[in-house]
Amino acid sequence: MIRLTTMAIFLSVFSYAQSTYSINGVVKDKDSGELISGAVITVKEVPEISIKTNEYGFYSLSLPENDYTLIINYSKHHEISKEVHLDATKRMDWDLYKDNETTIKEVVINNKKRSNTVSARNKMGAEVLDVQGLSKIPMLLGERDIIKTMQFLPGITSREGNSGFSVRGGNGDQNLILLDEAPVINNSHLLGFLSTFNSDVLKDVSIYKGNIPSQYGGRLSSVVDVKMKDGNNQKFGVNGGISTIGARMSVEGPIQKGKSSFIVSARRSFMELYMGDNQNEDGSEQKKTSQDKLYFYDLNAKLNFQINKNNSIYLSGYMGRDVIKFDNAQNNWGNKVGSLSWNSIISDKLFSKTSLIFSNYDYRISLDAPTVKFDVNPNIKDLMLKQDFTHFINPKHSLKYGFQISNYYFDTKNISKDIESPFLNTSRSMWENAVYINDDYKITDKLSVNYGLRASAYQSKSKGKEKFQEIGKTNVFIEPRVMATYELNNSNSFNASYSRNSQGIQTLSSGDGTQLNDIWINLAKPQVSDQVNLGYVKKFKKGYELSADVYYRKMKNIADYKDGVDVNNALYEADFQDNLLFGGIGRAYGLEFMAKKTSGKFTGWLAYSLSKSERKINGINNGDWYNSTFDKTHNLSIVTNYELSPRWTLSGAFVYATGNAATFPIAKYNLDGQTMLEYGERNSSRMPAYHRLDLNATYEFKNTGRFKAALTFGIYNVYGRSNPYMLNFEADQKNPGKINVVQEVLFRSLPSIGLNFKF
Question: Given 14, 30, 335, 747, which is the most exposed site by the fewest CB atoms within 10 A?
Answer without folding.
Answer: 14
